[in-house]
Fold:
Amino acid sequence: MHKPRLGALLTLAFLLGGTVNCSGSADTPDLQDLDLPDPGRPVGIAGAPLNVLLITVDDMGWDSLGVTGSPVSDISPNIDRLAGEGVLFTQAHVTIAICQPTRAVWMTGRYPHRSGALGFDPIDAQVPTLVEALAEAGFRTGLMAKTGHVVPSRLAAFEAVIRAKDLQNGRSPELYYEHAAEFFRQAQSAGQPFFLMANSQDPHRPFVASRQEVNARGRDATSTSEQYGGGFPEAELAFAPEQVPVPGYLADLPAVRREMAQYYTSVQRADATVGAVLRALDDSGMAERTLVMFLSDHGPSLPFAKANVWMHSTRTPWIVRWPGVVAAGVIDAEHMMAGIDLAPTILDAVGLDNLDGADGRSFVPVLRGEAQAGREVVFTQINSLSSGRSYAMRSVIGRQYGYIFNAWADGETSYRSEASGGLTLSAMRDAAGRDPALAERVSHYMFRSPEELYDYRRDPDARENLIGSHERAATADRLRAMLLEHMRSTDDPQLAAFEAWLAQLEQAPSGVQDPFTGEK
Ligand SMILES: [Ca+2]
Structure:
C-alpha cells in the first residue's frame, strides 16, 4: 500500500477527535501514539459495535468514475468522495461478470462451481452465507433492490427487504435515501448493529433515455417481479455523445457514442444513489462506527465486457471506508483483490469466523496497511448466461498478463448475450461490412478461439491475442499451469475439457497452431 498522504493523516486525526498541525508539534499525541481500535474486534470508533454498509452498482465499468480516470466531468462526485475517505483498490476483480452468480460469490465466499450457483442457479442447500452468519450474530440485515439476484434462496435471512419496484426499478436516489434512512432508524431503535446491502440497479440496461428504456417503461410500470418494477424515474440524457469516451474495446461509431452517452447518464444516476445512501448514513449519526464497502458487480453491459472474462469484464473499483482503521485517500495498486474475498473480509472486520468451506480469505490485514502475500492473480469464469445459453470460459488474470480458456469455442457456436442488444453491437456489425479489421474483431467476439493471451498493461482492451507469440510462449505456459492447478484444486467441472485441450497441445508439433484447422 502507498503511504497515506498528509491529508489522509489529517482526516484520520479529525476522526479521532484531535488536530495535527503541519509543524508536527500537535496539541494531541503523535499519530504513532494514538490508540487505534483493534480492527479484529467488532467495534466502531465510538466503542459501539461495527456496522456494515455494502453499496453496489450494477454493470458499471471500473474506469467509469472520476477517481479511476474517467474524462467525463462530474460523472461521480459521491463515489469519488468516498474513495478519498478510504482505500481504493485498482487491481480488483469480481469472480464472474453476471449479476446473480457474482452476488452468490459475494454471499458465499466460494467460486461458482463450489456453491452450485454457476449461472442463475440456487446455491446448494448446505452452503452457508454471509447474510445468515450476520443475522445469527445479531445484526439487523437489510437488502435494497436486486432482491431476485442476491442469493434469492436465502432471502428470508434479510430482515428488511426493499424491492426494486419500491425504488423505481432500483433507480431513484430519493427513494434510496428514504428507505435507507428508515432502515438505519429501525436498527438504531432496536439497538442492533446492522448490515445493509444497498444495490443500485443503475447503470444496468435499459440505459437512461434509450429505446430499451422506452420499451421497458410500459412493461415494468406494473411488474410484480422480484427484480424489476415501479417504473423508471424521469431523466433526460445528461451528456451529449461527443462528451463521452468510447471504450477502446469498441469501435468509435455514431450509434456507439449515442449508447455510451446513455450509459454515462445512468452511471451518473448510480452515483447519485450512492450519494443518497451515504447521506442517509451521515444523517443517522452512525457513520463513524460503520464500515462502508463499495464496488460494481462487474463490467458494463457492452460487447467485450459483461458476461465474458476479459479484463474489462470483471475489473471493479473496490472502495473501503473504515473510520479509525483505513487511512483516507489511499490507492492500492499492488494487491489483486477477488470477489471471493468479500464475505470473509466483512466477517473478519466484525470479528466473526469465516464461512465454512469458503475459498476466499479476509483482506483486513491489507486494510490495516500491511502487505498480504498470494495476491498476484485472480481467477474468473463464465458458465451459463441469463438466457440459459452455455459458454464455459476460464481466466487467470495478473497485473500484466491474462490467459483465457474458452471451452465452448468450436468455430461454429456463436456468442450471444444481453449485451448484444441495444445499439453498439449492431452498429459494429453494420460497419464491419466496410471495414475488414472491424469484421475480424466482430468475428472474434462471436466465435473466439480456444485460448487467448493478453498483455493488459500494454493492451488493456484485449485487442491483440498473443497466444501464438513465440516470445510469450513461456508466459502462456506459466498461466496455463496456474489455471490447471486452480481447476484441479477446486474440482472445476471444466477440468476435463481443459486437460483434453492441453493434451492436444502437447501432441501437436511445436509451433503456432491454428485452433480450428490445426495448421501452423
Ligand atoms: Ca450486474
